[in-house]
Amino acid sequence: MKLDSAVVSLLGLDPNQTSVSSAGGGGMSSASTCKITTKTPDGGDMQYFMKTGKGREAEIMFEGEDASLNAIHNAVPTLCPKSFGHGKFADTTGKSFLVTDYLDLSGRGAPSVGMSMAEKLAKLHTTPAPTPKGYDKPQFGFAVPTCCGDTPQDNTFSSSWADFYANSRLRFILNQSKKSNGSDKQLESLVEQTCTQVIPRLIGDKHLNSGKGVTPVVVHGDLWSGNASAGRLPGMTEPEDIVFDSSACYAHSEYELGIMKMFGGFGASFLSEYHKLVPKTEPVDEYPDRVALYELYHHLNHHALFGGGYRSGAMSIMRNLISKYGDSDKSEL
Ligand SMILES: Nc1ncnc2c1ncn2[C@@H]1O[C@H](COP(=O)(O)OP(=O)(O)O)[C@@H](O)[C@H]1O
Ligand SMILES: [Mg+2]
């Protein structure tokens, strides 16, 4: 396989000393993966990981993933690969790429040294978000759209976490779902009730932490067990707990826990270690319902992406939350 000249120039490689091979390990998105190996001036080998994809979708996906990986890498360098950049191929039209550190993966649950996943995630979730250009304080959202699966998400900055979650996550994904699955009045009505009744009551800015609200922090955004592993980043002699394939944004830290709960793999001992470092948000007794509210987004996203089966999980979470936190008229549940 010949390496595209746009990648050669981005990385400053010598094409005669560089080869490209398949990276194997297919993920959940439509991107293809490969490994770039090049000789360093001291005679050693250096490797990069490259994703490639077609069309505008891939361009958006890689721009988001580049910014996501670097937002995490800058806060906790040992947690995820850094991105070297993204762009369009020069020698083939309509194709884009993303190049990152190569991870030597040893698999989920394999022995690891250094900080644990809980410690690294806690460090990430206690590093305050930077203030975006043009704003006077940190915001919820992200500078670019990011993809969770193949869905490009709206990350428009907001000073209100509740507004961001209602508009840029739940209402946004319901619209995507309408495009892929057609109109669904029952689902639409429950999402709207969740946004207007449950969200203000459960994660309203004046409700959390006794009126102090929550501080935006970087979250991975797609942290299911398939995007976490033990592995070696460049410079690591032993495997550590690492993550990859992120769709980051600046969010309430508990937002991360929704997808982690949905797909499992982060059990009670993980959570107890993590919450010693990142205490649950107040009111603590509503924590399970907040995590369910955050899990809801991923059921709706999976419904938008894959249809059918994921609708019932979303409906049951919404019915439960509306019956607890909604207004008194529950006739539509
Ligand atoms: N930086 C990397 N180095 C080596 N292998 C990687 C790296 N990132 C991901 N992979 C492997 O490639 C697979 C697909 O990558 P991933 O980023 O998860 O993409 P997808 O969006 O397709 O799920 C992963 O499951 C993992 O096995
Ligand atoms: Mg993945």
From TrEMBL:
The reaction(s) this protein catalyses: N(6)-D-ribulosyl-L-lysyl-[protein] + ATP = N(6)-(3-O-phospho-D-ribulosyl)-L-lysyl-[protein] + ADP + H(+)
Record's protein name: protein-ribulosamine 3-kinase
Molecular function (Gene Ontology), one example: protein-ribulosamine 3-kinase activity
Pfam families the UniProt entry points to: Fructosamin_kin
Lineage: Eukaryota, Fungi, Dikarya, Ascomycota, Pezizomycotina
Transmembrane segments: none
Xref: Gene3D superfamilies: 3.90.1200.10
Family: Belongs to the fructosamine kinase family.
Top-level class of the enzyme under EC nomenclature: transferase
Keyword tags: Kinase, Transferase
EC number: 2.7.1.172
Organism (species): Baudoinia panamericana (strain UAMH 10762)
Signal peptide: none
InterPro entries cross-referenced by the UniProt entry: Fructo-/Ketosamine-3-kinase, Kinase-like_dom_sf
